[in-house]
Specification:
It is a single chain. The protein is α+β, with helices and mostly antiparallel strands. The chain is 27% helix and 30% strand. The chain is built from 5 helices and 13 strands. A hairpin with a 3-residue loop joins strand 5 and strand 6. The chain has one domain. It starts with a helix and ends with a helix.
């Protein structure tokens, strides 16, 4: 265990973390002072879930370098581990049904839309301040402003997580079989996922899509 601790200490020194955002002003303005304790509780729950999952990965025998590296975008962290804890798939959509006009009004940003026609379902996750769109019953696109939603992914080492460029911004391709932790939700097994930054938002596209198909859809987002 001493050797693992030394490895992690070295990793912590090598990883460059972005400065912590000042969420207080935005939370007060958008959620109201009385809702801030709930937001903090949800953030604490999300962090605790990640800690449990990482702890489970470290519990795997001979997993001396389980926490290999961090990859991330604004509001999203991808952690590669030796073993992914076993969980089942979860629902693609959740939150309150809404219209795009209501989403723009309540979330404070203009939704970006792909050229996939009219969404089958539009949801607002108020706790995470996230817009969720469902297309063709199996393609989900979600978007949020940095400082709102918190998403963490656990993926197995060698899972071919790939940095990509989408519409001039940074992106990540994360193959199916990884765990996703979304603010205030139970961890679930996720499908092929493309994440990227565009127009001040972080976007996430998940579904039965190849990387080429996902990149084509993302390129149409305006």
């Amino acid at each position: 265990m001493a050797e693992l601790e030394r490895e992690l200490s070295g990793l912590a020194a090598a990883v460059e973390f972005p400065p912590a955002p000042d969420l207080a002003g935005g939370v007060r303005a958008r959620l109201g002072e009385r809702r801030r304790p709930r937001y903090r509780r949800l953030v604490a729950i999300a962090v605790a879930l990640v800690a449990v999952a990482v702890g489970a990965a470290f519990a795997v025998p001979d997993s001396r370098s389980a926490l290999l590296r961090f990859l991330g975008l604004k509001g999203v962290t991808v952690i590669q581990v030796d073993e992914v804890p076993a969980v089942g798939p979860g629902p693609l959509v959740f939150g309150e049904r809404a219209t795009l006009a209501r989403a723009r009004r309540e979330l404070g940003f203009k939704p970006l839309l792909p050229r996939l026609g009219r969404p089958d379902d539009i949801r607002i996750d108020s706790a995470a301040r996230e817009l969720i769109l469902l297309y063709r019953g199996r393609i989900r696109m979600s978007e949020f402003q940095p400082g709102g939603s918190i998403i963490t992914k656990l993926t197995k080492v060698g899972g071919a997580v790939e940095p990509v460029r989408v519409n001039g911004g940074h992106g990540l391709w994360v193959p199916e079989g990884h765990l996703v932790f979304e603010l205030g939700r139970q961890p679930r097994l996720a499908g092929n996922t493309l994440l990227w930054e565009q127009a001040g938002l972080t976007l996430r596209l998940e579904g039965r899509l190849t990387e080429a198909q996902a990149l084509k859809i993302a390129a149409s987002v305006r």
